[in-house]
């Protein structure tokens, strides 16, 4: 069982959620809200379902990631009601709830029916969740303005949420160390994945996202999704982007390791680590997150110049002419919470120079986010650049040597504090 202080923080968290939701509901004209946990859809033409992890607002309240066909009913001034789907079923086991204090804050009911519960005097009712699960339930389904308001309730994390995110980081770091050890021992991508799962004691299906484990050139595919089962002939690099889900909350950590004899690539990894830590140092209330992204491009330009990968251009010109975007094509990070890419990060469209940025807000205390700069050798981005007039500034021979290493990404999870930031990842080392 989690420590007593965490369980106490959860009670405070629920009290805060009650207040936030009551305000959001009142502002949107509702005095009753029914939230569906959701259920895993079945694969087309099959009788097997996809794995299920739950709908964000339901997890925000309960943390019950694997509970399907459950419902949460909220009303101002009333105890929340949770209906847990617990059928009499000889095919599958029902999950069990550990006895914890948070359950006393709810009216918890069990039901064998997967459909929506009958509500007593629902009044002005909103119903939110997967439309396929809502059916013909009375009330307003997924009203857009209310959904936006509820997304905002997740922007500023409570002390309980930050404690859960910190623990998710702590557990993931054990897995990252095991993955690094497996890489050094010559394991395949599949073997490294098994080492990570064994160390974290979490199945791949229950992790917050499919772990990215890329050896050599595979590290140059940003969301590389396959695992080779055979070791590489020459292990040049490992990029692992993997997290843990703890009580519904996600960690999202990336580390890159150079293989034996890869001194040039190892120097780039070290330089990227230095840049990443400088960017983490920028995280503080009042800072525009887009400014951190732009500072990352300036840092990448300086790294390209110092390494000799690009010559004959100053750092500003590299950024302005799009060279840095060929080496660092994604955004600097995103919000983090019960979803890996948590909600409400983009109240306005991202700027033209950062089309893939998932967060473009000014930072405030209580926000939790990632900082993840990268430097990649991606043929589909570099080949057109080499063939363009700008190609004369790139060292084609050096790029050819480094392509087999794929790329570098270093990612930490940070909580914005009143005076700066708490690095939830570095607090646990690695």
UniProtKB/TrEMBL annotation:
Domain annotation Xaa-Pro dipeptidase N-terminal: ranges: 12-150
Residue numbers binding Mn(2+) 2: 241, 252, 411
Native organism: Marinobacter koreensis
Catalytic activity line of the entry: Xaa-L-Pro dipeptide + H2O = an L-alpha-amino acid + L-proline
EC code(s) of this entry: 3.4.13.9
Top-level taxonomy: Bacteria, Pseudomonadati, Pseudomonadota, Gammaproteobacteria, Pseudomonadales
One GO MF term attached to the UniProt entry: proline dipeptidase activity
Alphabetized Pfam families for the sequence: PepQ_N (PF21216), Peptidase_M24 (PF00557)
Protein name: Xaa-Pro dipeptidase
Gene3D superfamilies: Creatinase/methionine aminopeptidase superfamily, Creatinase/prolidase N-terminal domain
Enzyme class: hydrolase
Cofactor note: Binds 2 manganese ions per subunit.
NCBIfam families (UniProt xref): PRK13607.1
Binding residues annotated for Mn(2+) 1, in chain numbering: 252, 334, 372, 411
UniProt keywords, alphabetically: Dipeptidase, Hydrolase, Manganese, Metal-binding, Metalloprotease, Protease
UniProt xrefs under SUPFAM superfamilies: Creatinase/aminopeptidase
Gene that this polypeptide is encoded by: pepQ
Record's function text: Splits dipeptides with a prolyl residue in the C-terminal position.
Family note: Belongs to the peptidase M24B family. Bacterial-type prolidase subfamily.
InterPro entries, A to Z: Creatin/AminoP/Spt16_N, Creatinase/aminopeptidase-like, PepQ_N, Pept_M24, Peptidase_M24B_aminopep-P_CS, X-Pro_dipept-like, X_Pro_dipept
Domain Peptidase M24: start-end pairs: 164-418
Cofactor(s) the protein needs: Mn(2+)
């Amino acid at each position: 069982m989690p420590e007593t202080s965490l369980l106490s923080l959860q009670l405070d968290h629920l009290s805060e959620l009650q207040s936030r939701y009551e305000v959001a509901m009142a502002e949107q004209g509702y005095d009753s809200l029914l939230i569906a946990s959701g259920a895993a859809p079945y694969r087309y033409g099959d009788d097997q379902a996809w794995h299920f992890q739950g709908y964000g607002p339901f997890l925000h309240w309960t943390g019950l990631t694997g509970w399907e066909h459950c419902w949460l009913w909220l009303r101002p001034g009333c105890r929340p009601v949770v209906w847990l789907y617990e059928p009499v079923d000889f095919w599958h086991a029902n999950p069990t709830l550990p006895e914890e204090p948070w359950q006393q804050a709810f009216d918890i009911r069990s039901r064998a029916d997967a459909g929506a519960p009958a509500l007593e005097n629902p009044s002005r009712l909103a119903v939110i969740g997967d439309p396929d699960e809502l059916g013909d339930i009375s009330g307003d389904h997924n009203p857009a303005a209310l959904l936006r308001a509820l997304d905002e309730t997740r922007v500023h994390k409570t002390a309980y949420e930050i404690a859960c995110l910190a623990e998710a980081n702590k557990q993931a770091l054990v897995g990252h160390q095991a993955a690094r050890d497996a890489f050094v021992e010559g394991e395949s991508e599949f073997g490294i994945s098994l080492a990570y799962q064994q160390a974290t004691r979490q199945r791949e299906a229950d992790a917050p996202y499919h772990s990215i484990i890329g050896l050599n050139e595979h590290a140059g595919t940003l969301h590389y999704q396959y695992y080779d089962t055979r070791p590489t002939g020459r292990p040049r690099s490992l990029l692992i982007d993997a997290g843990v889900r703890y009580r519904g909350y996600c960690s999202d950590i990336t580390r890159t390791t150079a293989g034996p004899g890869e001194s040039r690539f190892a120097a780039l990894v070290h330089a990227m680590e230095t840049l990443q830590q400088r960017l983490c140092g920028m995280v503080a209330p009042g800072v525009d997150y887009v400014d951190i992204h732009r500072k990352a491009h300036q840092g990448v330009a300086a790294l390209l110049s110092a390494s000799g990968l690009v010559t004959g251009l100053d750092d500003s010109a590299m950024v302005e002419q799009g060279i840095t975007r060929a080496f660092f094509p994604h955004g600097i990070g995103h919000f983090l919470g019960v979803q890996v890419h948590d909600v409400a990060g983009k109240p306005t469209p991202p700027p033209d120079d950062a089309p893939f940025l998932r967060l473009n807000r000014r930072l405030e205390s209580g926000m939790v986010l990632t900082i993840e700069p990268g430097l990649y050798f991606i043929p589909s981005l570099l080949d057109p650049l080499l063939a363009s007039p700008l190609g004369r500034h790139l060292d084609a021979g050096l790029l050819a040597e480094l392509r087999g290493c794929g790329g570098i990404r270093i990612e930490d999870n940070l909580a914005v504090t009143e005076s700066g930031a708490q690095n939830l990842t570095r607090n646990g080392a690695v």
